[in-house]
Each structure stands twice: as C-alpha cells, then as structure tokens.
Design a protein that fits this description.
This protein is an alpha+beta fold. Helix content is 38%, strand content 19%. The protein has ten helices and 13 strands.
Length: 322
C-alpha cells in the first residue's frame, strides 16, 4: 500500500476491501449508478452492511482518482464545507482487463434544509478564506518522482501541490506568484493552443492580444483562495444532513471570483446563494466585467472536449475584450 497525501492506495480492490472492512468482507450487490461521462460509477453493498460508492476507469487513468481524492481531501481540510468521505484509491488487474478505482462512503441524500442555499454561500466563503499554504507545497510520494518542473518546490501563492484534471482534460497547477500570470499561462494559453485548429488567422491575432494584455482586465486578489475549480450545479449534492456537499473537484489556489463565475455559467444557483455569499464576503468592484474571462477557460475546455458547438461562445468572449 502506498500513502499519497494520507490517502491509502491499493493494488487490488479485494485488498482494499479487506483492509477497510475486515477479512470476511464480500460484495453482495453491485448497482450501476448513472451520471458522469468520464468514469463508470457503482454502488457496492457489502455483507458487513456497509454501502460504498466506487468510480472506475481504465488502469492507465488512475491519476484521475488520485487527483480527485487530493482535491476532496483539500476541501475537507478547510473544515468549511462537507465532501464525501474518501476510503481509498487503487488499481486492479481484473480478470479480463485492468482498472483503476476510487472508493468513497456512499451518500444518501436527505431533504434540503430551508436555508440550504444560504448555508452553501456562507460555507463557500469560509472555504475561500481558509489558509492555503499547505495546498501549494509539494509533498513527498510518488507524484514527486516526475521530472516535470511543475513538481519542483513551490514558488508562489497560486497553483496546487499537484497537477489534476478539469473534466477529462489535464490541468497544470505550477505554482506562480501572480494570479494573472497563472491564469494566462496555466489556464487560458494551454486551452487556446489545443483548440488552435478552430481559429482563423484573425481569431489568433485577437487571442494573442488578449493574452498579452490580460492584466488590463483581471486583478490580483486580496488573498488566495482554495477553489473547487469546476463549481457548476452538477458538482453540488445534498447530504444526509440536508446541507450541500461538494463533489468532483478540480482544486487549485486562485482568485475566488473564478469559482463564483463558474456557478453563473450554466445556472442552477438561486439568488439567495449569491446574497449570502456577498453578505459574508463582498466581491471586488468590477467582478461582472471579469466574469466572462474566467468562464472563457471553462468554455475553451468544453470546446476541446465536445467540439465546435462551443466555438461561438468562445469567440464572442474574446471579441468582448479585444
């Protein structure tokens, strides 16, 4: 067993279950769970009476799950907002084909409390105000064996201690002392490069101008914040206590405006959520003028994953600023 960020990682599902639940453990029922287009998901019922949630993917995609677990662990460590309990990550050779997995405690949703959205707003503020120093420092373990310079010692306030994923795509989190530099170099620029075939020569001129003058539009935050990183309504669920829980993170340390902008991109968050958030921590003046730039990253990611249906919104935002 390998320890990465205090999250156990096993070389077989059977070994994981024995270590977690005892030598007599058996899976008595497996139910496929709907939702998500990257991983397969299952509810596993054990003879111990326990029920666990398992995500599975190809063995070579184990990094999806170690990254997700690290993000959930980071959110949990702020003691601000709930996340599912992490049991372990791992890989298994399987009978026919190998696979990787993430095991979480199964969450049975309760009815939403009357102040569900207001509580989410104030708890998100608490997460955004939590100390972020430990989220930048790169810890020991298998992730540090990479020769990638992004695994070098931290140099700055923004980034994360390891790279991760937003949706199905890799997300670089190399530490930076400037939020604007970080957002340009590790968010917008890589997405624009990967989507280059969609753009005309005139589009590329606008994109270059935007990236070169990003400091005309974005601001450095008063303090760095741990971000969920993919905060749309599908990544918020109601827990058994009737309060919101955050799932499927793409965590990094950045400007909290990026999380709030994402909540507005696809909708689903009511006015009472924003009222509670802004009452506890007002946003900096001009946020509405910066919002589309933050969501440009998410739309570019969708363009690179799902195709040309997102080209129009991407080009519209680029033209809005240059």
């Amino acid at each position: 067993m390998i320890q990465t960020n205090n999250i156990p990682d096993y070389t077989s599902l059977a070994r994981a279950l024995v270590e977690l639940f005892g030598s007599s453990v058996k899976i008595v029922q497996t139910d496929r769970v709907s939702g998500g287009d990257i991983n397969k998901a299952y509810a596993l019922t054990l003879n111990t009476g326990d029920k666990i949630f398992m995500k599975a993917n190809a063995k070579e995609n184990a990094a999806f799950f170690t990254a997700e677990a690290a993000g959930l662990n980071a959110i949990k460590s702020t003691k601000a907002i709930s996340t599912p309990e992490i049991l372990c990550t791992g890989t298994d050779d399987g009978e026919d084909v190998g696979y990787s997995f993430l095991l979480l405690k199964f969450i049975k949703s309760g009815g939403k409390k009357a102040d569900y959205w207001e509580t989410l707003g104030t708890e998100l503020v608490a997460m955004h105000k939590a100390d972020t120093g430990d989220f930048i420092k790169r810890s020991g373990g298998r992730d540090d064996k990479s020769t990638d310079k992004s695994n070098s010692p931290a140099d700055g306030r923004f980034g994360f201690f390891q790279d991760n994923f937003v949706g199905a795509r890799a997300q670089k989190n190399t530490p930076s002392s400037s939020w604007i530099d970080f957002f340009r170099d590790y968010r917008l620029a890589p997405q624009f490069r990967d989507a280059d075939s969609y753009f005309s020569s005139e589009d590329r001129k606008k994109i270059t101008k935007l990236l070169d003058h990003l400091d005309h539009f974005l601001i450095e935050p008063d303090y760095p914040s741990l971000l969920h990183g993919d905060l749309w309504s599908g990544n918020v669920m109601c827990g058994p206590d009737g309060k919101a829980m955050l799932i499927d993170p793409a965590c990094y340390v950045g400007n909290r405006e990026a999380d709030i902008a994402m909540t507005e991109l696809f909708g689903g968050f009511p006015g009472k959520f924003y009222e509670a958030y802004k009452k506890a921590a007002p946003l900096e003046p001009g946020y509405e003028e910066r919002r589309d730039l933050y969501n440009l990253y998410q739309l570019l990611n969708h363009l690179n994953i799902f195709g040309s249906g997102y080209l129009g919104p991407v080009l519209s935002i680029v033209s809005e600023y240059v």
